[in-house]
């Protein structure tokens, strides 16, 4: 009974915190992005990803770091106190929510794997895309994409290789390598796991920022920026083929406002944005260290308050 109460209270608290934070993020992410306007693309992509995963990360962190220890250390084990209906109902709802997320993530992975296996029939290995494996595929679509999360690989169609010049192809490959290094396909799978209504706009904004961040990683001067813009225009006609393979990252999407914005941004390339990205890479470290010190210094008192907060869930 003690273990059941601990699980029920922990899942209930996680669900309540997860729901409140999800609603807050869904309502306020546009204001947060507006406040961050002008940030480098990589920093913006990281910021939007942090916002999207904040409910799940914060819910797990608080539950595992505070709720479970407070219950195990401060809840009397000798009391045969029955678990109430509220934690039972909330705990069951939490399990259903997590189970539904797992089903969505597994389903997206299965559909993507089926599509990628079809593209890989007759594929040949290439060696000019270090450190990510490159495969030439027979299908004309996808023209150029990254498939796989833990073991990413770049897929290049024969048609795309024919359309692009040597410099355009090398720049486009660097773009895909940037996606692979940042594990963007794994991030998409995580979105499927913690899927909630109202988050599609935030996920789209993250995807756009992630593409611009990969653009920045692929080019270092105006000439390369023009090569990548040219590659985007040439390969945009093949973008619709990856619609079912949601856990892949293609170079170009169908012609639209997002792709047009990327092309315009590349044509107006500004080399100073590279320096801004490098300069801002460690600026959050002092804040994280300070938060860790505060948690360690007040941990005992926080556990006591947390136990008091969760007492009503048991009754």
> Using only CA atoms, what is the Rg?
23 Å
Low-confidence stretches: none
- Strand residue content: 5-15%
Shape: elongated
Average pLDDT value?
87
Determine the oligomeric state from the structure: single chain
Order of H and E elements = HHHEEEEHHHHHEHHHH
Task: Provide the number of structural domains.
Answer: 1
Largest sheet: 5 strands, mixed
**Which class best fits the helix and strand makeup?**
alpha+beta
Strand order of the largest sheet: 1-2-4-3-5
Keywords for this entry:
315 residues; alpha+beta; 12 helices; 69% helix; elongated
Short précis:
This protein is of the alpha+beta class and 315 residues long. It has helices at 2-35, 41-74, 85-119, 158-163, 166-181, 184-193, 200-218, 222-235, 257-267, 272-279, 285-297, 299-314, and strands at 124-126, 134-137, 144-147, 153-157, 248-250. The mean pLDDT is 87.
């Amino acid at each position: 009974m003690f273990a059941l109460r601990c699980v029920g209270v922990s899942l209930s608290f996680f669900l309540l915190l997860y729901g409140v934070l999800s609603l807050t993020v869904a309502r306020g992410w546009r204001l947060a992005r507006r406040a961050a306007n002008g940030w480098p693309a990589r920093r913006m992509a990281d910021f939007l990803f942090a916002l999207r995963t904040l409910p799940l990360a914060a819910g797990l962190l608080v539950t595992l770091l505070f709720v479970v220890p407070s219950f195990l250390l401060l809840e009397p084990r000798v009391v045969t106190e029955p678990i109430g209906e509220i934690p039972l109902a909330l705990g069951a709802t939490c399990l259903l929510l997590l189970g539904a997320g797992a089903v969505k993530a597994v389903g997206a992975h299965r559909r993507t794997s089926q599509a990628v296996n079809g593209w890989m029939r007759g594929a040949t290995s290439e060696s000019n895309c270090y450190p990510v494996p490159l495969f030439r595929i027979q299908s004309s679509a996808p023209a150029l994409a990254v498939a796989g999360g833990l073991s990413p690989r770049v897929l290049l169609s024969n048609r795309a290789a024919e359309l692009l010049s040597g410099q355009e192809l090398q720049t486009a490959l660097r773009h895909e390598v940037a996606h692979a290094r940042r594990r963007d396909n794994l991030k998409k799978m995580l979105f499927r796991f913690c899927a909630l209504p109202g988050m599609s706009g935030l996920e789209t904004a993250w995807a756009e920022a992630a593409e611009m961040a990969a653009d920045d990683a692929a080019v270092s001067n105006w000439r390369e920026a023009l090569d990548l813009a040219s590659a985007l225009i040439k390969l945009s006609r093949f973008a619709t083929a990856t619609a079912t393979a949601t856990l892949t990252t293609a170079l170009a999407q169908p012609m639209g406002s997002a792709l047009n914005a990327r092309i315009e941004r590349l044509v107006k390339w500004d080399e100073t944005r590279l320096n801004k990205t490098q300069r801002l890479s460690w600026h959050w470290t002092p804040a994280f260290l300070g938060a860790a010190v505060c948690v360690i210094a007040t941990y005992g008192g926080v556990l006591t308050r947390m136990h008091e907060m969760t007492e009503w869930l048991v009754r």
